[in-house]
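re: that complex we talked abt at group meeting.

here r the seqs, copy pasted straight from the sheet so there may be weird spacing, ignore it
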Amino acid sequence: MPRKCTVCGHPKRREIDRLLIQGGTIRDIAKQFRVNSNAGHRRKTGITRILDKPQSQKKTPGDTQGRN
Ligand SMILES: [Zn+2]
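got the structure back, here u go
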């Protein structure tokens, strides 16, 4: 029987995911919500991909100014 990660089974999982998306570290959040720090959760939920998107699409103000 595969063991579900404590974050996935947590009643406040959505809050935890939101913090992760906002850039919180799994260790800090795990401490805060008293769950096991499970780095695999982040990958499993695809949060790392969500994090990558805004970073790659984001343009630095300096870059925009340099083009115009
Ligand atoms: Zn999980």
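couple things i noticed - Residues 1-54 form one domain. The CA atoms of residues 18 and 24 lie 9 Å apart.
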